[in-house]
Amino acid sequence: MIAVRMSPYRGEVLVMAGEVLVAGDVPVAVREAVTGVVAALEDAFNRKDAEALGAQFGERASWTNAAGRRLDGRAAITAFSGPAMREFLKDSYARYEVVKLLAVADGVVAVNVAQTPTDAAGRPVEGPHGRALYVVARQADGWKIVAGQNNAVDAQSAA
């Protein structure tokens, strides 16, 4: 079922597509492509595959991780992610849920993602949750994250 309501901003129509809030004109094919980027990012993180994780970012992406460290460029994101996932993130797993898609411009979508900590089998566990904002844009090599910020939040704030 799709629910529609008016946004408080400029009379935009907001559409609930499943459990995802869609603001502006985000065609189904774009929704699928953008949520596919998020799913691939989640899969790469949970497999601890820095190359696959980095492949979800644009060549000139800017990313700020949950610790507040800014990384510029796909190469830097990939280089940081490998050791991080082998060391302090080695036992960290998460489920990523797209909660909102916002059409920013033609070929650019802002994506709000809720991250839930899980065990290696995907079962929810205690621990810090995440709230991320990804800006995903159509690039020559497909849809990629071009900017983003990840924030750690406690479970109570995440609810």
Description:
The protein is of the alpha+beta class. It is built from 4 helices and 9 strands; from the N terminus they run βββααββαββββα. The chain has helices at 28-47, 50-54, 74-86, 155-158, and strands at 2-6, 13-17, 20-23, 57-64, 70-72, 93-105, 108-118, 129-139, 142-153. A 9-stranded mixed beta sheet has the order 1-2-3-6-7-8-9-4-5. Strand 1 and strand 2 form a beta hairpin.
Distance between the termini: 24 Å
Largest sheet: 9 strands, mixed
Strand content: over 45%
- For the biggest β-sheet, the strand order reads 1-2-3-6-7-8-9-4-5
Question: What's the total helix number?
Answer: 4
Give the helix/strand class: alpha+beta
The helical percent reads 25-40%
The whole-angstrom Rg is 16 Å
**Quaternary form:** single chain
Shape: globular
Order of helices and strands: EEEHHEEHEEEEH
Mean pLDDT, all residues:
90
Number of E-state strands: 9
Q: pLDDT under 50 segments (min length 5)?
A: 1-11
